[in-house]
């Protein structure tokens, strides 16, 4: 596949080149947003590990796809937010169930996706149970895939209880990325989240269980860090149980070498049949989540672009092509196309240089922003505004302030356009979701939805389609500033 290189516009090229030379950071100005860091912020070995991983690098998530295969149904603990009928809720959206695969079926599926999706860079195993406890199947799958697709990175997610038993194998198998879910380091709090574990052939409960789980999780984190494996820690934010405590978790995992901390909101619904769902435990609001994330600033670097994907997710984060690759849809003959992935990665390398230079300029332009301003962006990847408003099922939220322009999260909403007509109720929902966002940037928008947004105080801008997001935001800020200056001179 060859993707087109599109020149940036809106900013003078000579200026852009000059700024590019001075560019020192990788697109995120926030000190707490380490996942956005670029090659200048880390040693070359670490950068090589994260540059194509959509979860470990916020920047990479614009370009690269991951896929999950649901091969490991067994689990050794019980989380109060999990119903075993569905997938592991530690790193997948609860309430959905994946097609369970044997390692051979999973390897075939990975081959099929790799042949079709040149953006694919990572294979993850994140359930439906625990990848480290159901180790035989996890290992068999990774072995099969790495023989056929050595360029695909391997990634696994676990509750941590069984992880210390597999460190040598993880290192030997070149698994560079491991996620451990740690919701508490205080066993009194942990016991409110995990009522029992199965450890050394015995079921254990309460504080004893939570203590063993915590010790094994932290041990695994230290062991992996010592061996050069990057560890991301996931924590599920449960209001009233561990919200205040997550700052302590953040400090504890940072001290033991965690590369990233991903604080995810509890998703709780009685229909999921989980203990928390049935007992009325609510999830956090977006504001509560942001408050806890912000309170962790200065500790372990935070991941803010997680989409809580499914245990059988396929595609860029935020898109899910899993249903295109169910077993019944896989072709009989699968021909790998490594040259397409190579060509795509070469294109991304060039695109990155161009985008980073543009982002550097944008940082400068934003530096004069008087007050923090939010922008909702419609994008289908590559860090560009390249999606019609009506097709967006999520908006990427960027914030411009005196420190620069940074990605601060995403907000989901059903797509407004239903093939020829717009859905008024969906528009109400979109307006609600964007209530504090004054600008929507999209590739195109019709007059009707533009007016609905304007009536709600949101300006839709579709004149910057295909621009880099940061560049577009910078040129909007510059143009607003020029208008204000003109008005002031005229007054
Ligand atoms: Fe999958 Fe997890 Fe690996 Fe990513 S997901 S096993 S680290 S390849 Fe990513 Fe999905 Fe969030 Fe997970 S967006 S749920 S953090
Ligand atoms: Fe469920 Fe995952 Fe917890 Fe096991 S570790 S109980 S599969 S959420």
TrEMBL record:
<dbReference type="InterPro" id="IPR013785">
    <property type="entry name" value="Aldolase_TIM"/>
</dbReference>
<dbReference type="GO" id="GO:0046872">
    <property type="term" value="F:metal ion binding"/>
</dbReference>
<keyword id="KW-0408">Iron</keyword>
<comment type="pathway">
    <text>Cofactor biosynthesis; Fe-Mo cofactor biosynthesis.</text>
</comment>
<dbReference type="InterPro" id="IPR000385">
    <property type="entry name" value="MoaA_NifB_PqqE_Fe-S-bd_CS"/>
</dbReference>
<keyword id="KW-0535">Nitrogen fixation</keyword>
<dbReference type="InterPro" id="IPR036105">
    <property type="entry name" value="DiNase_FeMo-co_biosyn_sf"/>
</dbReference>
<keyword id="KW-0456">Lyase</keyword>
<dbReference type="InterPro" id="IPR005980">
    <property type="entry name" value="Nase_CF_NifB"/>
</dbReference>
<protein>
    <recommendedName>
        <fullName>FeMo cofactor biosynthesis protein NifB</fullName>
    </recommendedName>
</protein>
<dbReference type="InterPro" id="IPR003731">
    <property type="entry name" value="Di-Nase_FeMo-co_biosynth"/>
</dbReference>
<feature type="domain" description="Radical SAM core">
    <location>
        <begin position="61"/>
        <end position="312"/>
    </location>
</feature>
<keyword id="KW-0479">Metal-binding</keyword>
<dbReference type="InterPro" id="IPR058240">
    <property type="entry name" value="rSAM_sf"/>
</dbReference>
<dbReference type="Pfam" id="PF02579">
    <property type="entry name" value="Nitro_FeMo-Co"/>
</dbReference>
<keyword id="KW-0004">4Fe-4S</keyword>
<dbReference type="Pfam" id="PF04055">
    <property type="entry name" value="Radical_SAM"/>
</dbReference>
<comment type="function">
    <text>Involved in the biosynthesis of the iron-molybdenum cofactor (FeMo-co or M-cluster) found in the dinitrogenase enzyme of the nitrogenase complex in nitrogen-fixing microorganisms. NifB catalyzes the crucial step of radical SAM-dependent carbide insertion that occurs concomitant with the insertion of a 9th sulfur and the rearrangement/coupling of two [4Fe-4S] clusters into a [8Fe-9S-C] cluster, the precursor to the M-cluster.</text>
</comment>
<keyword id="KW-0411">Iron-sulfur</keyword>
<keyword id="KW-0949">S-adenosyl-L-methionine</keyword>
<dbReference type="InterPro" id="IPR007197">
    <property type="entry name" value="rSAM"/>
</dbReference>
<dbReference type="GO" id="GO:0016829">
    <property type="term" value="F:lyase activity"/>
</dbReference>
<dbReference type="InterPro" id="IPR034165">
    <property type="entry name" value="NifB_C"/>
</dbReference>
<comment type="similarity">
    <text>Belongs to the radical SAM superfamily. NifB family.</text>
</comment>
<dbReference type="GO" id="GO:0051539">
    <property type="term" value="F:4 iron, 4 sulfur cluster binding"/>
</dbReference>
């Amino acid at each position: 596949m060859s993707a087109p290189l599109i020149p940036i516009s809106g900013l003078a090229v000579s200026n852009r080149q000059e700024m590019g030379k001075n560019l020192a950071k990788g697109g995120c100005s926030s000190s707490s947003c380490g996942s956005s860091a670029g090659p200048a912020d880390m040693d070359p070995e670490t950068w090589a590990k994260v540059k194509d991983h959509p979860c470990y690098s916020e920047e990479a998530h614009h370009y690269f796809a991951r896929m999950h295969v649901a091969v490991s149904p067994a689990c050794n603990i019980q989380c109060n937010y999990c119903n075993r009928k569905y997938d592991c809720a530690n790193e997948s959206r609860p309430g959905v169930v994946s097609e369970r695969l044997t390692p051979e079926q999973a390897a075939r599926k990975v081959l099929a996706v790799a042949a079709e999706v040149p953006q694919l860079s990572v294979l993850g195993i994140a359930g439906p149970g625990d990848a480290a406890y159901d180790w035989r199947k996890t290992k068999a799958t990774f072995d099969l895939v790495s023989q056929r697709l050595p360029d695909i990175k391997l990634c696994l997610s676990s509750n941590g209880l069984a992880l210390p038993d597999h460190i040598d194998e993880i290192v030997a198998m070149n698994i560079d990325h491991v996620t451990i879910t740690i919701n508490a380091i205080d066993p009194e709090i942990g016991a409110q989240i995990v009522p029992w574990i199965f450890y050394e052939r015995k079921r254990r409960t309460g504080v004893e269980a939570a203590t063993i789980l915590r010790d094994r999780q932290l041990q695994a984190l230290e062991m992996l860090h010592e061996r050069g494996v990057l560890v991301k820690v996931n924590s599920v934010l449960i209001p009233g149980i561990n919200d205040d405590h997550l700052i302590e978790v953040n400090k504890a995992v940072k001290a033991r070498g965690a590369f990233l901390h991903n604080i995810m909101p509890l998703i709780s619904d009685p229909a999921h049949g989980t203990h928390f769902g049935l007992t009325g435990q609510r999830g956090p609001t977006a504001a509560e989540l942001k408050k806890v994330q912000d309170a962790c600033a200065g500790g372990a670097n935070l991941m803010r672009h997680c989409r809580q994907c499914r245990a059988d997710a396929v595609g860029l984060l935020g898109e899910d092509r899993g249903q295109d690759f169910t077993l019944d849809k896989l072709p009989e003959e699968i021909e790998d196309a490594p040259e397409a992935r190579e060509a795509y990665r070469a294109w991304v390398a060039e695109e990155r240089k161009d985008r980073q230079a543009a982002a550097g300029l944008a940082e400068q332009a934003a530096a004069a922003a008087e007050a923090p301003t939010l922008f909702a962006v419609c994008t289908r990847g590559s860090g560009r505004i390249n999606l019609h408003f009506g097709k967006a099922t999520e908006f990427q939220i960027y914030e411009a302030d005196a420190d620069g322009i940074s990605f601060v999260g995403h907000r989901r909403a059903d797509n407004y356009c239903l093939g020829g007509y717009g859905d008024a109720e969906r528009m109400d929902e979109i307006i609600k979701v964007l209530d504090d966002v004054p600008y929507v940037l999209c590739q195109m928008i019709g007059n009707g939805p533009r007016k609905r947004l304007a009536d709600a105080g949101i300006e839709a801008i579709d004149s910057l389609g295909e621009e880099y997001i940061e560049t577009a935001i910078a040129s909007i800020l510059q143009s607003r500033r020029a208008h204000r200056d003109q008005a002031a001179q005229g007054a």
